[in-house]
Design goal:
Chain lengths: 311, 281
Amino acid sequence: MIGQPPVRLEAHEVGKWFGEVVAVGNCSLEVGRGVVGLLGQNGAGKTTLFKLLAGLITPSRGRVLLDGHPLRSHVGLYRRVGFCPESDALPGWLTGREFLHMLVRLAGVERARVRGRVDELLERFELTDAANRRLGGYSKGMRQKLKLAQALAHDPDVLFMDEPLNGMDPVSRHQAIGAIRQLGEEGRTVLVSSHILPEVEEMTRRIILIHRSKVLAEGDVTEIRDLIPEYPTVVALRCARARELAAHLVRQEHVMGVECEGDSRVIVRTEHALAFYRALPGWLLESGLAVEEIHTLDDDLESVFTYLTGD
Amino acid sequence: MNHTTETVRIPAPLGDGVASLAVAAATWRELARRKRLLSLAFLLMLPVVLLLAVRIWYPDSAPADVLLSLMARYAYIPLLVPITAIAVGAPAISEPIAEGTLVYFWTRPLRRHALYLGRVLAAALVGGVMVLLSQTLVFTVALFGWPQAIGFELVRLHTEMTVVTLLGTVVYTALFAALGAGLKKPMIAAILFAFLWEPAVVDIPQRIQEWTLQFHLQNLVHWPDTGAADLRGFIENLLNQALAREPVPAWQSVLVLISVGVVTTLGGVLLLRTRQLDKQG
């Protein structure tokens, strides 16, 4: 990806409705390089937003642009796009190799390079042994791998992955998470839709949270967590002189409450976690106390999700 | 949010020829392996078996040219060609939509018409090959016991009938594929068209019969040159009286058939271009 211009995926006031049902209402967002998790409960509008962004459906209002152009009406842009659908549907009468061969060719890979690329993908996703079997006989995990393989067939800059880990065994799941993180680190734009929060958390800290057809939050999980005033962030500190530390912290700005748990653990509630973390080293120097461990208890994705959606 | 509008050069889509051929090659494999093709092959063997029975038990009943003509007019055109087109044409576009596999084509840099043409081309080829094999076998069996019939005229008649039935297969396939681009259950619409509309309308005089594909295909089938007194003349007269057909010039039928093929293909492409992938997949 080095040397390639960054991909810019934008949605401007996008809405989609089917009859009187609003699936997505007035969403604006921008996705750049790296992995971004698209999160939402069932029926929140996640899948519709995903399809809008990937150009599979046209918005009822607003615009979706990839590098300044509507993806749906400029199909050449799909040379830069890989798509891994949620559905397990595959043309069951083709073999794995034939399926990949067709899609690698259709992605614009030169004829002379197609066979080699197909072999590479089969090898990378451990499907070489099953390459000549018809897709109708593939297990769910194998289908998932094949779907990922075809999405990466042409080395795309931007990847849409709808529930990419569904049906994978733990080892494959672990490998896939690593591979997705690596794609983001390489500078690609990877949009991952999922409802399994810990999995998304392993891939990225950047999320788009959609709830009741609207984008509720967008950005880094910690930053988003910091913007939820109704639920102060809970930070645990391990310190040999816990009571002294508690007494010192309770007087500081951004600290809403302090309590001691045993002799070596202090629990702090702060309304502004980032400011708290910035100021903490100064307070420690000032007090001459040493902290062995700092751990935020509720800035994980699940907490943020629960606080924001109220569910 | 920064709503910049700076644009980047758009990559070119895949060439239509390359895209259509790649789609057609994969679709060919896919269609040729479907189980329904076995049923179709069995059905297309029926005229061969029937002719074989005629040749074994009634060896002197009819000359080869009359049998070929009868088969083309009353077995292939009204029955076997539409059935073949229903089996391969109706699912060509509708099946990937219904199954959710269209998304793999949709997210590739190929234009919608290239995808459509590739799939319809493969369907027409599969159907055409099946009909061609069946007709070749019919031709071979029709010659049993009538080796003296082999000549330029018979070969010309066979070629003409083959071309007409292949044209019929292509046109019906194009029509049923277009139904698949617009309807959720194109098979039902195709069956109603082929076996309700066509038989009901094809024998209505005063040019109404021209509103069927069957009429134009049958209009193109040449009857062997016969005297009214012999068996061939008898059959011809009998059928013409019974069916009340009013022939039109051959060029007119060819024009109508080609127009139907072109218009339905364009319609199908337009339907596919406006299609949205509501179904997940």
